[in-house]
Amino acid sequence: MITNAYERYKAQYKKAKETLDLLEVKKTEINFGLETDSINAALHKELRTVNLEIKITLNELEQVESNMQACEIQFKST
Questions:
Q1: With the CA atoms of 49, 51, 24 and 32 taken in that order, what torsion angle do they form, in degrees rounded to the nearest 10?
Q2: Using CA atoms, how far apart are residues 50 and 26, in angstroms rounded to an integer?
Q3: What are the tens digits of pLDDT across the range 36-68?
Q4: Cα 1 from Cα 34, distance rounded (Å)
Q5: Which of 1, 11, 37, 57 is most buried, most CB within 10 Å of its CB?
C-alpha cells in the first residue's frame, strides 16, 4: 500500500516537474516579447498569470516531495 502511494507521488512529481518546465519556457517567451514591446498590457497580464502558475506548481512540488519523504520514513519503520 505504501509503495502504491509512493508511486503515485512519484508520478505527481514528474507531472508537476514537466508542467514547471513548460511554464518556464512560456515565461521566457513572454519576457522575450516584452523586450520588444515593454508596454504590452496583454503580455504583462500573461506574465503575472504564468508567475502565479509557477508559484503554485513549486508549492505542489514541495508538497509532493514532503509526501514522498513521509512514505520513505513510514516504509523504513515497517
A1: 80
A2: 8
A3: 999 999 999 999 999 999 999 999 999 999 999
A4: 49
A5: 57
Phi, psi at 4, each rounded to 5°: -65, -45
Q: Please report the beta strands in 1-78, taking only residues with DSSP state E, as ranges in sequence order.
A: none
* pTM metric for this prediction: 0.88
Residue 52 and residue 26: Cα distance in Å, rounded? 13
Report the alpha-carbon angle 49-52-57, nearest 5.
125
CA angle centred on 61, ends 57 and 63, rounded to 5°: 115
